Amino acid sequence: MDANDARKPDRRDVLHLAGAAAASVTLYGLPSAAAAASEDRGPMKIATIGVMSPGDMGQAVAGQLKANGFGVLTALGQRSERTRALAREAGLTDVGTLARLVADCDVVLSIMNPGSALEFAREVAAALRAGGRSTLLVDCNAIAPTTVQEIATVIEGAGGRFLDGGIIGPPPRGGAKTNLYVSGRGAAVLEQLAGPQLRVHVLGDGRADASALKMCYSALNKGTQALWLEALIAAQRLGVADHLERQLQQSQAERLSWALGQFPILPPKAYRWVPEMEEIAKTMASSGISSKVYDGAADTYRFVAASELAKETPENRDRSRTGSDVVRMLAQKRA
Q1: CA dist., res. 144 & res. 147, Å (int)
Q2: Model pTM?
Q3: Alpha-carbon span 246 to 248, nearest angstrom
Q4: Which of 46, 167, 187, 291 could form a disulfide with 281 if both were Cys (CB 3.0 to 4.6 A apart)?
Q5: Total count of domains within the chain
Q6: Residues in CB range of 259: below 8 A, 6 or more apart
Q7: CA nearest to 219, candidates 322, 139, 163, 290
Q8: pLDDT (tens digit, 9 = 90+) per residue, 133-175?
Q9: Are 75 and 155 members of one domain?
């Protein structure tokens, strides 16, 4: 045997090494699913978090993360002046572009109008491919489980990682606390985000369990608000509002008080609740339940979103306006 033969790798060893490399890297140089699965089993230390977009809820969540010691970034290149102002108020670092955000963050939280969630995921996927990154995207929007599956496919197909999230509760500012439910394999890594006003609940390995929970909760919460608003507006227009209120005070006083308490903050958010109701309708249909109630709720919020009241923002709305005032003003508006 030639002395140099001892230094030549056996053909089987070469094939083994090649197979291991193929299992770790895709043709695009990105981590493969096998490599990602291996990484998911190890601990991931989160230091820097991207939040898109820092609107009413996103800004409040970002503020909590910043208070908990995380570096919090955003990308305001195509955002409104209101969003920019909210980001400045929270002390967020603007990196300008989504490509930079994906490159600089361990995790990106998508918190936005649910109607924009899928398109945003596609933009993240493009950034992942361009930068060769495997950044974790957590979709925290009010979307149907079927939409979650679409987004997961888009992100993972680009070499990124994905987890599902659902936020239930008010924006966590002042003394308010909110809940972030998360699901998917490895979702426990997001327990690092928890703080006094941001409670993180891990539901398990189900790919879309967090969104399924959010959809069912919102169906009861915002869906019910739409029903109350419709009935009270109708009573105003039919001239029986006083009679209805007296009857409700006798038999449904607590529920009436709850509904009227929700209405003052509803109009500036109505435009976002339209696609949320549409996502609930998709959820119900996929569960074998009629979607018609939530198709109707979407119409109600579309009506509200077209009103003068909806031109306000959560920050500058008239805080002296009561729920009964909102009903009366909307009753005067015709579709």
Answers
A1: 5
A2: 0.85
A3: 5
A4: 291
A5: 3
A6: 224, 225, 228, 229, 232, 323
A7: 290
A8: 999 999 999 999 999 999 999 999 999 999 999 999 999 999 9
A9: yes
